[in-house]
């Protein structure tokens, strides 16, 4: 089943990693399908270019190895996230690779040589042999190393040939961005200009609920004017049968027998790492099942208990966890942690089991259509019920399912669905109850209306008080004097910038914007309305920027702004490129 990818992760600004993926995976080119039938071992297509299952697996394994210390043994959700990240990385590179070809971007031998000369590999950078007396990197020694005819530098050259075209493409987008001196000056002012203010806050909560009267007439009027606000959507209640796609006892026994056979091979002298690479279904398989060191509490308990009970070199009996059947080999052991490898075989329903489950589900569906859901359930299945839920929305215990929603919308109470297949199993539904959209009676929403009106009245009183204080402050040219008449004590801030957190205020944009709009010392603001309440401010002092310091920092700030705008431009360009691409994802044919 083909599906157009609509989600993708935010692209990385610096493209070194994504280019390296290209070097590892796409250096032999991708196959363009055109009108011929695609291979059965293709996990996706990007504008007609096939992504093979092997390519995808190569990158997926590398992603796991890069993150194995954090991931350890992953659950199904973590595996899905890793596959999604891998998919997005590959798709992103494929699109960049295609764009490079379209634009005719080439890399010369001299550019490759220059890149290798100025980008020593990490193994060289970390070697103390290449340190100068003052601790810096000795490029002269590195250049001597490059001239050694017995060292194969081709991997570094190939990396350069993959990386440089992407950098050139990136630079083409970057070169469209400009930063003016006025932009830099305004940004510097925004970051460094400071103010200090007195402020008074008036809240709705300053007025007690008990002092606010709400009449029945007001409630009636509000209900008549706002009754649509209370409209409830159509609701439905479904009864259903569910048959899970679960492995049978025969599947369980088959996997257990197989893991015992693999254990026998390990005990007979076959290399555990080779066996893991060949048979293990865990993400650590490509690394010979190596899990590295782990402490107690980092693995599921049955696995952990078995690992900590073994001596170095020993192989465990088969261990059952929620992930499947394992055999574990301890490599090293310390007081509070252990270094182990493992082989995992997952217990999943076989094709025969899935066929049997589907056949059984079809029989139940046929019986339910003829004689009803209760008769179909009999004594072998439990009849479940969703309870009333909003039609077309999330279905309790099931989730969002367009097929079910469409069935409910097109049928009446008593109608039984056909078989509905999901990833987890098969459902048969019957519409037990339907309630159309309705506006609840006044009596059922009276308390909610009374609360709304009461809040509005308290907010109006707070607004009136705040406006009075602001007017009085203007007359007296003092916020302190005006506040005293209302038994309020103004609070004073320290100096703050536009990005600072203000104690008791936070980062309210209305408050901060008003504070910086005040020009003259002791100038009083009009009343400021926010979601939190109403404020009146009086400027105590304003500190402009230090022009000499600005002159010193101008070029660095300009570069920072330029890089930010370049990131935004590249992200916008690439987002548009991906939205226009024709992307097909066939991963659901390979991963359940």
């Amino acid at each position: 089943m083909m599906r157009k990818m609509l989600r993708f992760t935010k692209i990385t600004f610096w493209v070194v990693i994504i280019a390296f993926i290209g070097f590892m995976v796409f250096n032999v080119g991708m196959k363009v399908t055109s009108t011929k039938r695609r291979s059965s071992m293709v996990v996706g297509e990007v504008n007609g270019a096939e992504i093979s299952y092997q390519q995808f697996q190569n990158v997926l394994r590398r992603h796991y190895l890069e993150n194995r210390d954090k991931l350890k043994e992953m659950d199904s959700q973590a595996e899905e996230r890793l596959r999604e990240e891998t998919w997005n990385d590959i798709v992103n590179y494929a699109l960049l690779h295609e764009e490079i070809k379209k634009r005719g971007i080439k890399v010369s031998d001299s550019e490759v040589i220059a890149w290798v000369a100025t980008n020593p590999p990490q193994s060289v950078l970390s070697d103390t042999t290449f340190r100068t007396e003052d601790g810096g990197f000795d490029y002269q020694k590195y250049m001597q190393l490059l001239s050694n005819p017995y060292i194969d530098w081709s991997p570094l050259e190939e990396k350069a040939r993959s990386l440089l075209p992407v950098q050139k493409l990136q630079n083409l987008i970057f070169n469209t961005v400009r930063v003016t001196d006025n932009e830099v000056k305004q940004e510097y002012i925004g970051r460094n200009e400071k103010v200090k203010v007195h402020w008074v806050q008036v809240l709705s909560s300053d007025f007690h609920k008990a002092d606010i009267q709400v009449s029945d007439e007001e409630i009636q009027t509000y209900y008549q004017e706002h009754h649509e606000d209370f409209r409830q959507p159509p609701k439905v209640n479904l009864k259903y049968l569910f048959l899970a796609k679960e492995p049978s006892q025969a599947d369980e026994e088959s996997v257990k027998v197989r893991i015992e056979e693999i254990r026998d091979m390990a005990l007979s002298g076959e290399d555990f790492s080779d066996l893991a690479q060949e048979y293990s279904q865990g993400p650590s398989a490509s690394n010979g099942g190596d899990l590295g060191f782990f402490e107690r509490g980092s693995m599921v308990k049955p696995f952990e208990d078995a690992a900590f009970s073994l001596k170095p070199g020993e192989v465990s009996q088969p261990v059952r966890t929620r992930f499947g059947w394992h055999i574990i080999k301890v490599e090293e052991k310390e007081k509070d942690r252990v270094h182990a490898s493992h082989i995992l075989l997952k217990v999943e329903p076989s094709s025969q089991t899935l066929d049997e489950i589907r056949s059984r589900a079809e029989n139940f569906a046929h019986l339910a259509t003829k004689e009803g859901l209760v008769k179909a359930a009999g004594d072998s299945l439990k009849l479940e019920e969703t309870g009333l839920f909003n039609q077309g929305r999330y279905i309790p215990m099931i989730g969002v399912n367009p097929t079910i929603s469409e069935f409910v919308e097109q049928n009446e109470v008593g109608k039984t669905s056909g078989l509905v297949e999901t990833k987890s199993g098969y459902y048969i539904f019957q519409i037990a109850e339907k309630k159309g959209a309705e506006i609840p009676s006044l009596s059922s929403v009276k308390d909610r209306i009374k609360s709304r009106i009461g809040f509005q009245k308290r907010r109006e009183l707070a607004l009136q008080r705040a406006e009075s204080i602001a007017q009085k402050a203007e007359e007296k040219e003092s916020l302190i004097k005006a506040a005293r008449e209302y038994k309020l004590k103004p609070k004073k801030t320290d100096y703050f910038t536009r990005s600072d957190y203000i104690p008791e205020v936070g980062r309210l944009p209305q408050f901060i914007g008003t504070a910086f709009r005040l020009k003259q010392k002791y100038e009083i603001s009009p009343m400021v309305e926010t979601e939190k309440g109403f404020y009146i401010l009086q400027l105590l002092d304003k500190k402009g920027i230090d022009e000499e310091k600005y002159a010193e920092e101008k070029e660095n700030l300009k570069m920072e702004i330029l890089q930010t705008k370049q990131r935004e431009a590249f992200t916008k360009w690439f987002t548009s490129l991906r939205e226009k691409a024709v992307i097909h994802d066939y991963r659901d044919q390979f991963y359940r």
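The chain has 19 helices and 16 strands. Residues 442-476 form the longest helix (35 residues).
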